[in-house]
Structure formats: C-alpha cells, structure tokens
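re: the backbone from monday

yeah here it is again, tokenized this time
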C-alpha cells in the first residue's frame, strides 16, 4: 500500500537550492506546510558540500558592473541581462543568509566581516607569521567568500527548527498533473522500493544538473528531475551549453585548475598560455579545444607542468590548508584528496574530463517553469534561466557561482511559490496516472533484460566524454553522436533491475539519454561559435542573438527545437557590430 503525504509545497531535492527554497517559503508564511523529499539524506546529499566551498560575493562592486563584465567576457552577450542583474543585486544578501542558516560557517576576519579573496589575485609574499599575502586588484567586479564543507548539516537543522518536514531516502521519479497544473509527485524508497505519493499545491524542483556520472565529485547530478519535468511537458532552453570540462589526470580523476597556463604538447611547446591572455576568469574553452587540435595533429599526449601554474599557491592556500581561509572540515577533505591524487600520479599527462552541468529547464526571473504550479531552483535550471549566457553553468567561468546561484534562485523560488500557494486550490490527480508512472518505473524489473546499469553506463560515456563531440563540435560528429544516443534509447529494454537501487539506476540511464538527445539536437541548431560553445564548422558569431528552446511533443522523448530571440533592445550591454 503506497504512503500518501499531503503538503502545501513540495520541494524535491535537499541540497542548498532546495533548502533555500523551503526555508524562504516557510519563513514567508509559517502556517504553510513545506515538505522536502530527498533521494538520499537532506543536508548530506547533492554537490553543495562536495566542491571547493567558495561562494561568489559582489562585495563593494556595483551590480551593473558585474552584469557588464559577465555579459562581455563570459556570457558573450547571450545573457538574460535582467535575470543576471537580479542575481548580482542579491549576491551579498545571499552570503549573509547562508551564514545565518549555517550557524556562522562562512570564514570571517577578527572584526566579524567576511574574509574575501579574488580568484585571480596574485600571491605577494608572506607576512611575519608565514601567512600568504594576496593582493585584491579591481580585476573583475566580484570576490569570493569561503564556507566550511559541513555547513549543509547546520542548514538542515535550521530548516527543521523552522518546522519543515523531511522525507529522506525517497526519490521522486515523476510529477503528477491535475486540471492542467502540477499537483504532486510519485516517489520510491531507494532501499525497499516502497511507493510514496505526494499531493501538493505547488512543487519546487531542485534536483541538480545532468553530469552523466563521469567525474566522481560531480556524479550526484544524474538528471532525474530534468527528465521528470520533460515528461510533464516543461519547456527547456540553452540545452547546448551543458558541456563543462575540467582538466584531469587519468590516474586519479581529480580535477586540476589553471592547467591552461602550463599546457605543453609532446614537443615541449606551451600551447595553452596563448589562450590565457586578456580577461581570463576561469577554465578556458579555447585551451581545451587546443588539446584536441594538438592531439589530432599528432602532437600528443599533452602534459601539465604543475610547477609553472601561477595559481598553485592560491589553490593550495584556499583549498587544502588554513593559511588564508580557516575551514577545518574543508582543509581535511581537500588535503586528503590532494594527498591521494599526488601519491597516485606518476605521469604529467593531462586530459579533459567531462563534468557536464546540463541545466536546461527553462525558468523566468521568478523561477517559474512553463508549467503551472512548477518552480525550480539551483543547477537544474541555471542554464535554462539564461542568466549566465553562452557558458555551461555552474561554475560558468566564475568560481563560487554554483553556491551563489543555488542560494539566490532558491530564495526567489521560495518567495514565488509562497505567493502562489496562497490562492492555489488543491487539485486531485488521476489515480490512473500514478499507475502509469509505476508501470514505467518498474518496467526494468519485469521486462526480462540482461544488461546491468553499470554495464550500460560506459556506452553513454563513450558518446558524451570525447571533447570533439561535446565541446569542439562539428556537424558530422554531432549527427554521429545523436545517432548513437538514439540507438541506446532503443536498447533500454535490455536493462535489468533486481532491486530498488537498480530501478533508480535504470531511471538515471533514461534521464542521461534524454539529456544527451536534447544536448546534441540543440547543438546542431546553433550554427556559430559563441562563448563556451565552439563549432569547428562555424567558427564565427551569427548575426542574430538567439536562444534555442526545446518543447516536448508528448510523444516519448520527442521535442521541437525553436529559436527565441533575445529582447536585446531592453538590455544595456550590446554586442559591437
């Protein structure tokens, strides 16, 4: 017998974006029933407590300057500048709120103000105590704060004190509609497979991006929320930008930052440094493409001479010790990762590793999707918000933007959904829809397949990981990749599930293939190179600024791609002719 839970607001996903939405909605109206459902355990799951623990802050910069810089040098004029301005205006407040919710986990100076650091600030030496001294140049209009990586546990405690209900180890697999609006969701316990049906006046999706389970640290992003939104009929935008790469060693799969400053081909030539000239806030797409060009030309393998990376003193100070930021949990975490990586690495060979960050669920500035009653927050809709422009967010070439956008968008979604439910009726869904969802989810256990999830997964990796497919693109390679993805979709009936964990793995495989289809299809439509999006066969900008949307047709995984012109006349920052 399925458990039934009624709530005013259902938040799906218990990492920072979901928590921010839940807390904001609950504090806006304490009488509202807010429930957070998390596939693993809220406060521990997600990516928020697995990264660098740094967060973008505006500091003393002007929001308008942030928008101008980001639009010109990062988003390449494909930003929704109004959404980006709203984001910039809330950056400082977001840091203050997260510090409050986490019980003061953001590092501070002795006077109680936030300790900040510019990402590309240079080390100027050491003080009398041996502590590194960094400069703070006006190189770009934002700065960073740092939070200890156990902060989400405290955020959960804060939410519980506010009266928010938590349902853990329960994964939502599909949304329910009634009378043309979202009215709940169907979920299953990841341990025993028991079903829970939620009825809600509104839903906030905060389940993260699609990262294809390639890079270990980012593997929690498996796209089930994206696929659930698609099956419900939500529109997508900017799907072609879900292709973030980092530099990695194949011996440990840990990412390295600043490789482009010291990227050498096998002839001993530094081929990355030329791509770091001028404004260079973060990982450079052109140096990644250079890796491919050099390899194809027979100049590989490629090498990373770490001792020449000017960011290394900063990275070690920020992440793995307390010479600047004092964060005991983060220092231990990153120190262990660095030690394991260095002790396992016997070669300086470097390759690009696909993180992905497919985040194309379309939302407006209020974090509303195109479906009535459905809101979104965090990585699931960062790209779909269009705030970051022509770059895969996060980190969108701005370190710390992942936490900042999660906090920012979660608060906006919380306020919006709180206002929405005040006048929203309770709509009763069709029990037949629950049965259809159950049939879809349980199918791998009944279809007589023979292929296990971990046997199927590498087939997706072989299509998504190659940089020539997902970053430095060309029509013939895109078409070939899309064909392979569609072949794999036809092979879904070969999947085998013997447990609840297997069923969730099969659901994730379906989600990965859907996101890959959206990614390659929209990539074919964008016939230009702009920002992070590179086409070997279309190296120049197109004449018109265009977003591309993908709208489900209601027939399986089919969708229609359409251009959407930017309202550039409303925006203050315009591309030069």
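seq for it, each position gets an aa:
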């Amino acid at each position: 017998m399925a458990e039934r839970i009624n709530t005013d607001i259902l938040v799906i996903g218990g990492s920072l974006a979901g928590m921010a939405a839940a807390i904001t909605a609950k504090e806006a109206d304490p009488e509202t029933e807010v429930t957070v459902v998390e596939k693993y355990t809220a406060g521990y799951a997600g990516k928020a407590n697995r990264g660098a623990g740094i967060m973008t802050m505006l500091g003393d910069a002007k929001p308008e300057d942030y928008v101008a810089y980001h639009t010109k040098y990062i988003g390449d004029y494909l930003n929704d500048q109004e959404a980006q301005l709203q984001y910039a205006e809330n950056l400082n407040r977001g840091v203050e709120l997260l510090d409050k919710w986490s019980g003061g986990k953001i590092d501070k100076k002795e006077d109680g103000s936030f300790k900040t650091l510019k990402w590309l600030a240079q080390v100027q030496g050491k003080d009398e105590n041996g502590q590194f001294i960094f400069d703070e140049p006006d190189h770009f209009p934002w700065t960073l704060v740092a939070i200890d990586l156990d902060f989400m546990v405290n955020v959960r405690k804060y939410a519980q004190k506010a009266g928010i209900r938590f349902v853990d180890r329960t994964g939502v697999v599909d949304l329910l509609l009634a009378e043309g609006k979202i009215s709940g969701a169907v979920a299953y316990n990841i341990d025993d497979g028991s079903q829970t049906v939620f009825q809600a006046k509104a839903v906030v999706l905060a389940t993260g991006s699609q990262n294809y389970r390639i890079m270990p640290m980012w593997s929690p992003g498996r796209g089930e929320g994206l696929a659930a939104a698609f099956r419900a009929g939500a529109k997508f935008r900017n799907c072609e930008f879900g292709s973030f790469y980092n530099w990695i060693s194949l011996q440990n799969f840990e990412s390295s930052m600043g490789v482009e400053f010291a990227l050498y081909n096998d002839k001993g030539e530094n081929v990355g440094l030329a791509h770091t000239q001028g404004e260079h806030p973060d990982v450079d797409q052109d140096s990644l493409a250079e890796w491919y060009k050099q390899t194809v030309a027979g100049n590989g393998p490629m090498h990373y001479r770490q001792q020449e990376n000017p960011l290394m003193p900063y990275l070690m100070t920020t992440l793995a010790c307390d010479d600047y930021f004092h964060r005991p949990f983060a220092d231990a975490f990153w120190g262990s990762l660095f030690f394991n990586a260095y002790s396992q690495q016997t070669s300086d060979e470097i390759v690009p590793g696909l993180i992905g960050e497919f985040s194309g669920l379309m939302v407006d500035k209020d974090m509303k999707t195109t479906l009535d009653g459905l809101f979104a927050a965090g990585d699931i809709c960062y790209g779909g918000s269009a705030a970051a422009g022509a770059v895969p967010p996060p980190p969108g070439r701005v370190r710390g933007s992942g936490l900042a956008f999660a906090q920012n968008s979660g608060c906006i979604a919380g306020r919006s959904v709180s206002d929405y439910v005040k006048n929203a009726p309770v709509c009763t869904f069709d029990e037949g829809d629950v049965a259809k969802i159950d049939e879809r989810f349980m199918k791998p256990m009944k279809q007589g397949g023979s292929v296990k999830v971990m046997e199927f997964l590498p087939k997706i990796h072989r299509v998504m990981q190659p940089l020539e497919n997902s970053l430095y693109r060309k029509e013939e390679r895109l078409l070939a990749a899309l064909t392979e993805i569609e072949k794999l979709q036809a092979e879904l009936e070969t999947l085998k599930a013997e447990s609840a964990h297997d069923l969730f793995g099969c659901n994730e495989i379906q989600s990965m293939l859907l996101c890959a289809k959206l990614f390659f299809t929209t990539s074919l439509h964008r016939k230009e190179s702009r920002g992070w999006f590179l086409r070997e066969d279309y190296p120049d900008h197109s004449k018109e600024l265009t977003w591309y949307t993908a709208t489900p047709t209601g027939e399986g995984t089919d969708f229609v791609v359409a251009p959407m012109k930017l309202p550039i006349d409303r925006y203050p920052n315009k591309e030069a002719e």
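The chain has a mean pLDDT of 94. The chain has 16 helices and 21 strands.
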